[in-house]
Write a structure and sequence with these properties.
The protein is an alpha+beta fold. 15% of the residues lie in helices and 41% in strands. The radius of gyration is 18 Å and the shape is globular.
Length: 273
Amino acid sequence: MRRRMRVDFIKMHGLGNDFVVLDARTRQLPDIDQATASAIADRRTGIGCDQLILLTASEAADFRMRIFNNDGSEVGACGNASRAVALLHGAPARVETDGGLIAVEPSGSGASVDMGEPRFDWDAIPLAYAMDTAALPVGWEGLDQPGAVNVGNPHVIFFVGDVDAVPLDTIGPEIENDPLFPEKVNVNVASVIDREHIRLRVWERGAGLTRACGTGACATAVHAMRRGLVEREVTVSLPGGDLTIAWRSDNRIVMTGPASEAYRGSFEWSDYA
């Protein structure tokens, strides 16, 4: 007979990008595998979310944040979840992620997150072979010459005239799974409105279309800045709302925006494990 374990969770979101947060910093939980994470994230038979967030103790920082996509795959970074976790923690903190150490600071109804330094080397994205990440000499159905940036996870960015005209629900998964990207990739389509404003839609690796992607906003803003299209601080408008992205003179990216707690609940671990 299985031993039953009741587990508390917090449902949160950042601009509509939603998370189930499990806090295991003081209470140990069983190991989470891909099947368990996917079952909890399922919107029909589970609690439902874009990402499952697991907080644990850390020897390198104030705590560790693990991130599981809707399909159960584990990833290195999530900007919107970082703001949500900052709000939950309620104080400035250094957070260990698989993408590196980040710093979070709650402020009012949201948070600022020091996302670290962007990486542009082809093998840091990573790509399958060497090429110029400022303008990849590749294309898919009218989308061509994207930039590539790693901000804790890999992104490609296409600048287009109208973000809403791109069939991201069909071309997104094709690009995500292209052999050029051995760890798959997040797909961003963006329009520069003016030197302080970008519109953005994102197909997230392992999650699909989401209302907002914090790391996508960071990667897109930095790529636009790298190309001289915008200033070093911009507003990025996503379907769920706006984020402010600054690429500081010390090469670090700071993302600022809202986050919210939706509700709290509990579940039987054995229902999903």
